[in-house]
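Input.
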Amino acid sequence: MLPLSRRQWLVGSVGSVLAARFGVSRLPAAENLEEFPFVIVSDTHLGRGDAEEPAAQWRQAVKEISAVSADFVLHLGDVVDSGREPQYPIYAAARQGLKKPIYEVPGNHDPSDLFEKYVRTPIDTSFDHRGVRFVLFGNAHQDSHLGFITPEQIKWIDEQCREAADRDLRLIACCHVPIHANKHPDRGWYVQPADGQTAFYEVVERYADRFLACFHGHFHNGIRGWRDRGTLVEALCPSVCYNQDRKLAEHIKAQTATGFFVDELRPGYVLATLGKGRLTMRYKPLGEEPHGEYAADLE
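Output.
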């Protein structure tokens, strides 16, 4: 694993209905990727409500993740709640027990200066792993639930993609706020066209034969996502702290919402596997066995 500086569907509970309706979907050619497991966590929100429970949930997640087979962990933002600075050392102390590399991005609850002080600097970074470049960047502001990708970030992302193409690497982007323009019954928080969405999708289009997925947090809706821009998978991941029921399974079944949804909302994280022609995301509730899965074939 080389760190770099800044510079179908198988769904638990409702899966059979969704598979019958939408069939099997495909990603860009990646059948030769060596299979590897990794974990995705998000929205730990330490200090929420000035309670101890979020920190306890994070410690439990660390203990569980340390015991599973996974090459690394992605954290998709909102490390602490409402920028509570005393919570960052608590987060970091628990993270020291994690027996795997972890790569975080800040969320809208994470002030950039505190994230850089306690978590990582620079914020925007990337790493290569078994034929895939993971591109991580901060796209959240504390004063808004919407997302923002600056022109400087777009330039950097394009450079990362160009270099990945030169090295024959596939690409996965990771940030907190979704770029997809979701609609009701979803939250409607995303990177709007003038704030970087258009420019980002132009980069994706230039490297469409390499882009596999974009992973996000922010929504507290469990595993939720879309595949309506060609082959790109845009997936929102569950919160370790809390998730909320927006009746998405019912909306998707009634065709009043598009995309995919794993019908599980307990606090938890994702056990992911990529390679040998497949991306799989399994929902792992804290303290329970995995329940529900989203999977896409690769070609």
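The CA atoms of residues 268 and 288 lie 9 Å apart.
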